[in-house]
Amino acid sequence: SQQGEEDPQALSIQEGENATMNCSYKTSINNLQWYRQNSGRGLVHLILIRSNEREKHSGRLRVTLDTSKKSSSLLITASRAADTASYFCATDARGSQGNLIFGKGTKLSVKP
Amino acid sequence: NAGVTQTPKFQVLKTGQSMTLQCAQDMNHEYMSWYRQDPGMGLRLIHYSVGAGITDQGEVPNGYNVSRSTTEDFPLRLLSAAPSQTSVYFCASRLDRVQNTEAFFGQGTRLTVV
């Protein structure tokens, strides 16, 4: 069964707006990661947050992690049309042998 | 830097045929895995390997075999293709299973079984 579940399933915004995606998971984790997938392409790693971290930034990306609620959020600020893609959270659960378990993703559409 | 290379990119099989999807990485990563991606289902783990000579099953292993004779290569074999195996397949690697590291993905193989 899938560990992470993203919300919303789809999100449509205008260029310049912020996009927020949420991820919930079920078990204890070593870290949580966010990936991006452009249509028809492989997944690309965006950011990793460890279980003892609460917030992490990378350029226009901000990730938060709340282990007590088993949830994470990805914020993309000042979005661009090029940010249009699907975004997935992946959990690296404790004792998982290194397996990343992915959610179903959020499809983000940024309109010029 | 090639990263993770998958071949072929596209494949059409007839029901009952067998084939091997190739995956190679040049980063000396210990951990490798195969996922399938179906519409609305996200990525589901098929098989994984934590090092050469070691493989194990993931969430959806039925109908697939893997082997890991070298660190670099992790082929996925479809034994007798079925329409339910129509999907996009991704190979991924990580440095190892212990450290907090990212996964690197290949570009995918789009498989259609008719």
Strand content of chain B: over 45%
Strand content of chain A: over 45%
- What is the share of helical residues of chain B? under 10%
Detail the poorly predicted runs of chain B.
Answer: none
Oligomer: heterodimer
Tally of separate helices of chain B: 0
> Largest sheet of chain B, described in full?
7 strands, mixed
Structural class of chain A: mainly beta
Name the average pLDDT of chain B.
Answer: 95
Tally of DSSP β-strands of chain A? 11
Structural class of the secondary structure composition of chain B?
A: mainly beta
Q: Could you report the average pLDDT of chain A, rounded to the nearest whole number?
A: 93
Give me the strand/helix succession of chain A.
EEEEEEEEEEE
Q: Please compute the radius of gyration of chain A using only Cα atoms.
A: 13 Å
Give the overall form of chain B. Answer: globular
Tally of alpha and pi helices of chain A: 0
Strand and helix layout:
The complex is a heterodimer of chains A (112) and B (114).
Chain A: E1 5-7, E2 10-14, E3 19-24, E4 29-37, E5 43-50, E6 55-58, E7 61-66, E8 71-76, E9 85-93, E10 100-102, E11 106-111
Parallel strand pairs in A: 2-11
Antiparallel strand pairs in A: 1-3, 3-8, 4-5, 4-9, 6-7, 7-8, 9-10, 9-11
Chain B: E1 4-7, E2 10-13, E3 19-25, E4 31-38, E5 42-51, E6 54-57, E7 64-66, E8 76-78, E9 87-94, E10 104-105, E11 109-113
Parallel strand pairs in B: 2-11
Antiparallel strand pairs in B: 1-3, 3-8, 4-5, 4-9, 5-6, 7-8, 9-10, 9-11
